[in-house]
Amino acid sequence: MDPIFSAVSNNANHLYTLLRCIGFASKAFIQITPDGIRFSVEENRVMQGLAFLDKALFTTYTFNPSTEQECNGGGEGNDLEEQDHIVYPQFLISLSALLETLQIFGIGDANLPSSSFSNQASSVAGAFTSPAVLLGRSCTLRYNNIGSPLSITLSESGITTTCELTTYEPDDPSFGSAAGELDIPLQRDAIIMKIIMRSAWLHNAITELDGTNPTVLSISASSKKEPFFALSGSGGPFSESTVEFSMDKNNTDSDFNHKSLAGDGGPLSSKRTKLAPTVTETFQVNPPSSMGSRVKENYRFALIRKAARAMAAATKVSIRGDIQGVLSMQFMVELGDSGGTAGGSLSSEGSAGNVSFVDFRFVPLIGDDEEGDEDNEMESFE
C-alpha cells in the first residue's frame, strides 16, 4: 500500500532553516496538503508562528490523501459525498526532535541564552555560513497512514539515518488545546497598517531596543506626521528607548534615528546614522477616525524576541496590523538556490522559486498599565 505522503529534498538545510525560524516551541501542529506541509506553533494563544514547506522545495512530492470513508474503516453510510471527502492529515509532533534530526550530521547549535535577541539571531546566520547544517544532504519525509509515525531519512556521503517521530492526535488531552489547531485571526479586510521593509532594518531596531531589556514593545505609525514609523521599548529596569524611521519628502533618502531616554529623567541624547536610501518599500497607514491619524499598539517584547531567528534569516518583512491590534510579521526567506528567482509576494503564504515565507502573529497588550500583570493584560483568542 502506498504511503499517504512522501517527499524528497536534496537540501535538508532549507527545511532546517525555515523550521528553525519557528523553533521557539517544543511541539508543532502539522497539516499535509497537496501543495505542501504547514507547520504551526503557538504560545498560550497570544503568539503563533507559521511556516509552509511548499512542494517546490522538494524534488519529489507525492500525496495520496485518504477519504473519510477510508478513515472510518470503509463502513457504509448514507452520505456518499461525505464518504468521498478528502482528509488532509494533521497531527502534532515534537518540533525540537525534528530539528535535531535534520542537523544530525552537523555540529549542533551552541547553547545560547534564549533571552538574548542578538544571540538567537546569530545562531541562524550560522545556518548559511557555518557547518552547523551541512549543504548537499538529502532528506526523505514519509507518512504511511493515519496515526503512523513521521519518518525522516537523511543521507550524506553514503551514510543513511532514519528517525521515526511519534505523531499525536490534535485533540490529545495531554496537549490541551492543540498547538496551531486554531489560528490567531488576522482580519485581512480590516488591515489598518501595512509596512514592507528590509528585515535587517527591523532586526537592527529590535536589537537596539533589546539592550535596555524592555518588557513592552510599542509600534507607532502615521502617514501624516512624524514620527512616521517608530518602535519603542519600555518597562525595563534601565531606560526607555525609541527607534524612529524618518522618510525624506522626496522619498530619496531615509534616516534611522535612535533616541535613548534616560530612566532618571536626564537629558535626551540622540545619534543619527544613515543606513539606506529607502526605509520602506510599502507604507500604508489608514487608521479609523476613532484612532486619529496614528496607529499605536503595545506587545509583549519577550514574544517579539522569539521571532529573532526569522528576522536574521529573512530578506524582507511585511508588518501588518488589523483593527483589533493583531500584529502579523511575515518574513520572506531567500534560500539561495542557484538559478532560482527572488520573486513572490509578501502577501501570500507559500513559496515562489527560491523564496519561502514564515509568518508570526501577536495578540496586543490591553490596558494602560503595561507594567502590570502581563497575563491579565493580554487578550486570548479562543
From TrEMBL:
Transmembrane segments: none annotated. It is found in: Nucleus. InterPro entries: Rad1_Rec1_Rad17. Its main location: nucleus. It comes from the Eukaryota. GO terms for cellular component: checkpoint clamp complex. This is DNA repair protein Rad1. PANTHER family: CELL CYCLE CHECKPOINT PROTEIN RAD1. Keywords: DNA damage, DNA repair, Nucleus. GO terms for biological process: DNA damage checkpoint signaling; DNA repair. Belongs to the rad1 family.
